[in-house]
């Protein structure tokens, strides 16, 4: 159907026919004027004014030839200009009709086609805008399908991830029902397992709900100005005991020390918590987890070292914008270069065969990415000086 509409564009025959019709009309009008003029000069009359004009034109040397020459020049000029204007108007009208016909076709749900755009066409801006609108519609449909697919996969993963600890809990509860057949040591052991599995289920459910909230198109942010160094030290304090138990030096570095950051403290507390937990789980052999925050200028942001080529530069709202750069570094096992781009995807785990036994929903880094995007920032992973680095860049205005 659309191809027939495209083929319905103006043919050369139609253009030539229109030009011939217009040129013929102009020529006939001028022919009638010339004939009337010659008849006026050659036909005797009793009207005194007409007689004087005839005699003046005929008796004046070369005046008659000059008037005929003027008629011819006027004819050529008007013929060219009017034919050009009329043909251009005809083409524009036909192009507009063609665009309207294509819009009717699109209205039937055919969003994959596009209107050919030519810079010579008066309506090329209209056609381009319609094509852009169709691109947006297709993107919306694609995002909707991906979201539906993601939800289906999420439900499947939720069922799978919850079934495993739930099955264990049911089994051990059956054993605990026969308390008399168990020794005190066995009873305490099974009860600890049930509590541990229950905590695992609670963690999974919390992650799923957090991820679902972070995926919302409009996340409500409660952004306030906070002293960044004190805030980060407070977040890290919750992980000091676990870090000491694992033999890891957990440090914070903020430059300059008096940075006032405008962000949502609850969301960023979850961001840092997820990144630190990720370093605990997957940074095998790490002895240091280093949290860094620094303020940089717009110029330095554009040349930020280590930024992967596939990470686009964000646009600053104002020329004087500042940027906050956060990094969570660890000196543990490095992730393969070809996996760095994928680790923020939902439920993705680097080296699946090696990490399937590690507890977690696989949603931590996806939640980080979604919360960072809600702040208008970007996050990515890189390897720098044999350290695994998770970097966050957030725009700030002076």
String of helices and strands: HHHHHHEHHEEHEHEHHEE
Number of strands: 7
Largest sheet, if any? 5 strands, mixed
Question: In percent terms, what proportion of residues is strand?
Answer: 5-15%
Q: Count of DSSP helices?
A: 12
CATH level-3 fold name of the largest domain? Heat Shock Protein 90
Strand adjacency order, main sheet: 2-4-5-7-6
What is the mean pLDDT?
79
Distance between the termini: 56 Å
CATH superfamily of the largest domain: Histidine kinase-like ATPase, C-terminal domain
The CATH architecture of the largest domain comes to 2-Layer Sandwich
Name of the CATH first level of the largest domain: Alpha Beta
Q: Please give the domain count.
A: 3
- Low-confidence segments, given as residue ranges, are 1-8, 349-356
Catalytic activity: ATP + protein L-histidine = ADP + protein N-phospho-L-histidine
GO molecular function: ATP binding; phosphorelay sensor kinase activity
Organism: Eremococcus coleocola ACS-139-V-Col8
EC number: 2.7.13.3
Give an overview in words.
There is one protein chain. With 398 residues, the protein is of the alpha+beta class. The protein folds into three domains: 2-113, no CATH class; 154-214, Signal transduction histidine kinase, dimerisation/phosphotransfer (DHp) domain (Helix Hairpins, Orthogonal Bundle); 224-396, Histidine kinase-like ATPase, C-terminal domain (Heat Shock Protein 90, 2-Layer Sandwich), CATH 3.30.565. Helices cover 59% and strands 13% of the residues. It contains twelve helices and seven strands. Strands 2-4-5-7-6 form a five-stranded mixed beta sheet. Strands 1-3 form a two-stranded antiparallel ribbon. Strand 6 and strand 7 (387-396) form a beta hairpin. It is an enzyme of class 2 (transferase). Residues 157-398 form the Histidine kinase domain. It is found in: Cell membrane. It catalyses: ATP + protein L-histidine = ADP + protein N-phospho-L-histidine.
């Amino acid at each position: 159907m659309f191809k027939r509409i495209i083929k319905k564009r103006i043919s050369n025959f139609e253009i030539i026919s229109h030009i011939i019709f217009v040129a013929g009309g102009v020529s006939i009008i001028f022919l009638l004027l010339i004939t009337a003029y010659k008849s006026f000069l050659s036909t005797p009359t009793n009207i005194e004014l007409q007689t004087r004009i005839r005699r003046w034109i005929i008796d004046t040397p070369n005046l008659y030839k000059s008037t005929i020459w003027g008629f011819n020049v006027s004819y050529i000029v008007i013929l060219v200009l009017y034919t050009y204007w009329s043909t251009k108007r005809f083409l524009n009208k036909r192009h507009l009709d063609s665009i309207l016909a294509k819009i009717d076709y699109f209205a039937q749900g055919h969003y994959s086609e596009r209107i050919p755009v030519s810079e010579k066409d008066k309506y090329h801006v209209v056609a381009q805008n319609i094509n852009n609108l169709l691109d947006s519609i297709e993107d919306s449909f694609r995002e909707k399908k991906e979201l539906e697919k993601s939800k289906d996969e999420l439900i499947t993963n939720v069922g799978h991830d919850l079934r495993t600890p739930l099955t264990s809990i049911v089994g051990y509860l059956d054993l605990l029902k026969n308390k008399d057949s168990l020794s005190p040591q066995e009873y305490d052991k099974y009860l600890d397992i049930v509590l541990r599995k229950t905590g695992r289920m609670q963690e999974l459910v919390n992650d799923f709900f957090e991820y679902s909230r972070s995926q919302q198109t409009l996340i409500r942010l409660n952004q306030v100005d906070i002293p960044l160094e004190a805030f980060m030290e407070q977040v890290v304090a919750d992980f000091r005991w676990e870090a000491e138990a694992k033999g890891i030096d957990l440090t914070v570095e903020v430059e300059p020390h008096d940075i006032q950051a405008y962000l949502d403290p609850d969301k960023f507390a979850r961001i840092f918590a997820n990144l630190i937990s990720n370093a605990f789980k997957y940074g095998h052999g790490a002895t240091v987890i280093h949290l860094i925050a620094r303020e940089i200028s717009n110029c330095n942001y554009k040349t930020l070292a280590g930024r992967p080529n596939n990470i686009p530069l964000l646009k600053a709202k104002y020329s004087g914008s500042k940027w906050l750069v956060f990094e969570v570094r660890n000196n543990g096992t490095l992730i393969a270069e070809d996996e760095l781009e994928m680790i923020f995807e939902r439920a993705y785990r680097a080296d699946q065969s090696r990490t399937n036994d590690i507890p977690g929903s696989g949603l931590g880094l996806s939640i980080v990415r979604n919360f960072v995007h809600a702040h208008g920032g970007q996050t990515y992973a890189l390897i720098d000086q044999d350290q695994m680095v998770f970097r966050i860049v957030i725009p700030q205005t002076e």
